[in-house]
Amino acid sequence: MAIHYPNGRRFEANTPPAKKAGSSATNMYSNRGMTLEEDLNVTNQYYLEHQLAVIHKKPTPVQIVDVDYPRRSAAVIKEAYFKQASTTDYNGVFKGRYIDFEAKETKNKTSFPLKNFHQHQIEHMRQVIGQGGIAFVILRFTVTDEIYLLDASHLLSFYDRQEQTRKSIRKSDIEQLGYSIKIGYHPRIDYLKVVESVYFKK
Amino acid sequence: MAIHYPNGRRFEANTPPAKKAGSSATNMYSNRGMTLEEDLNVTNQYYLEHQLAVIHKKPTPVQIVDVDYPRRSAAVIKEAYFKQASTTDYNGVFKGRYIDFEAKETKNKTSFPLKNFHQHQIEHMRQVIGQGGIAFVILRFTVTDEIYLLDASHLLSFYDRQEQTRKSIRKSDIEQLGYSIKIGYHPRIDYLKVVESVYFKK
């Protein structure tokens, strides 16, 4: 069940039993759309269990309007709306340092559209950098299943110049400025290996 | 509109127009119950605007079961449930360091009940300490409006011993092991002042 909601992100109920979504527009994108998030969740779980890092995805922000509260033991939300996030989706701690990132994917083959990032997320990354945190994005090209880590400073630079130049980042620029993340099995997307080599240089 | 949901936490819809909650058990606690969270949100906003720290409250975790999706521009959540959080409520970055905390209050006058903390939150704090992050709790005694910062290591110690000793932390222990936070106006709960003096010693 995939729901496309106003800010362009997808929502997927990940716990059965999920009732029908009342949507005919489900599965507009392939399952790969969900896989980056799922892969990262599994990866973060691996890091947690092996005491390598404590990084979680933040809950989807929801504006709750109506709650039915028949008994103390049960509260049912009857009306709520998806809200735009004010931060990135993932954060946590790795070797004492603050880690913050957003993960996005595209079906494009040669560039990554900047519209995948919202103003709030961009400002958040700027603030994190200002506090000395480690901020980056994980970008996936779904067609070729290639994943890159790109430091947020580069993203901000492209984002700020998009009106003057182009509204996407060339894949060649990502290849040059970013770092390829190999897809494995355990953990699936071992981004901390890249983080360690890039941000924890001796 | 205050909803008390299963894990003992309160939910408050903070954006009008909020429809009636269908609850006769609202306002079981005084408004002070909400004020600690509100005060912290205002404080964090102050820190953000003054570029002192980037700390946010995580969204309330919600298990979404049914979404009505009549048009691409509108998705209405028709059935959802409050989920127990797997982490603490607040985290972020301050001077490059990872900051993680939970905020709780009690109407008790002489001790702080440990049942305010859930196993998941306790384990999360343990993991954060293991990664070298800064973890603490902000405790408020609502009757006297006193606020303390207590390092998570102390909380964990009391929590782990509660079956053998007592199921609450004496206020006198909090006074001795913790740090009083003065309530001000701008920012209201200046906990970073304490964080800086405790965790950033020269």
How would you characterize the overall build of this protein?
Two copies of one chain form a homodimer. Chain A has 202 residues and is of the alpha+beta class. Chain A contains five helices and twelve strands. In chain A, the strands form four sheets. The first copy, chain A, has a six-stranded mixed beta sheet with strand order 3-6-7-9-10-12. The first copy, chain A, has a two-stranded antiparallel ribbon with strand order 1-2. In chain A, α2 crosses α3. The radius of gyration of chain A is 18 Å and the shape is globular. At the A-B interface, β4, β5, β6, β7 and α2 of A face β4, β5, β6, β7 and α2 of B. Chains A, B: It catalyses: Endonucleolytic cleavage at a junction such as a reciprocal single-stranded crossover between two homologous DNA duplexes (Holliday junction).
Residue share in helices of chain A? 25-40%
Q: Write the CATH fold name of chain A.
A: Trna Endonuclease, Chain: A, domain 1
Major sheet size, sense and barrel closure of chain A: 6 strands, mixed
> N-to-C SSE series of chain A?
EEHEEEEEEHEEHEHEH
- The strand line-up of the biggest sheet of chain A is 3-6-7-9-10-12
Overall average pLDDT of chain A: 85
Number of strands of chain A: 12
> Which spans of chain A of ≥5 residues are poorly predicted at pLDDT below 50?
1-33
Large-scale geometry of chain A:
globular
Number of domains of chain A: 1
| Oligomeric state, counting identical vs distinct chains | homodimer
CA-CA gap between termini of chain A = 46 Å
Provide the β-strand percentage band of chain A: 25-35%
